[in-house]
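Hello support,

Our group uses your service weekly, and this is the first time we've seen a run hang past the timeout. The protein is GerMN domain-containing protein. I'm not sure whether the cause is the sequence or the server load. Input pasted verbatim:
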Amino acid sequence: MIHANKLSAFLMLVISVFLLGACGFGDMNENAQQIDPPQVDYVDQDDSLTGTNDSVDENIEMTWRELYLFDKNGYVVPQTLQVPKSLEVAKQSLEYLVKDGPVTNMLPNGFEAVLPAGTEINGINVVDGTATVDFSAEFTNYSPEQEMKILQAITWTLTQFETIENVKLQINGENQEVMPVNGTPINGAMSRADGINFEYGNGVDIVNSKSITLYFLGQANDEYYYVPVTRRVDLNKNDIVATVEELISGPMYYSPLFTDLKHDVTLLSNPIYENGTLTLNFNESVLGDNEGTAISEYVLQSLVLSLTELKGVEQVAVMVNGNTEIMMATGEMLAEPVSRPINVNKVKY
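Update from on-call engineer: The timeout came from a worker crash unrelated to the input. Re-ran successfully.
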């Protein structure tokens, strides 16, 4: 059962871009246990960013693609949709972000495309990890309050591909140092280190703080999905400990998001990191399912998704009171580290 910490009021904040500490995404480890909860999909992503045209096989061979869309609350959220295989996967992914475009009849309930209707992708040039995207003039037809989130959706959609780490923007071939409507700085190039869905609590010292990215739960009808949010924490706090503590503290009071982690969950010992694997030892409160005997898939995936945003963390091992064999709510035993999934929030058809 989901233990929702919902509060009724939700205030949308308009804030400036703040740089994150460097984030990393490790490759899938073949020996790591891969738990498959309803909203996480472990699939092979064998597409290449090479190719000279955007042709689709006559048999319409399909593949899965992670697209960052707006949910009903205005969050930028990954949704993994089935699209035709293409040689130009980066360009195709952005085309599926356009309103009234090919994504229209595929949108999950409560979700909408992020780019203005009529926007065309004139081209994408990838050099040394930086993708320069050339948009048509229709790209400028968006509301000022959506500017930051549009930039985040573009950046996070493109950086799902291993060959892209940074994103630059052009409009009809002209380099953009700021966004065209509200002047949000692009700072040369954007990356996942610049954050997504910013959250700020009272009393946060911007100068003496750093950013971490957390995954909480959202809901549309009977479907749950993972939502990344970026939050500022004390500059001197250990990244791993800060991430776990912020996950336990849950979403901000004004947020419609929620968590399955109980507030009395604690780490019993310091996290152990070795060769890409992070080991965490919790108290029994982390076992919130099946009358306190099993760990929720939502808890596990929130931990894995959040912690693998940190540089060098490729998989997460969970212990309870030093015990490495833990029961999952599904009845499976969790005895191996869990890797970060390639795609998140796979849409059911």
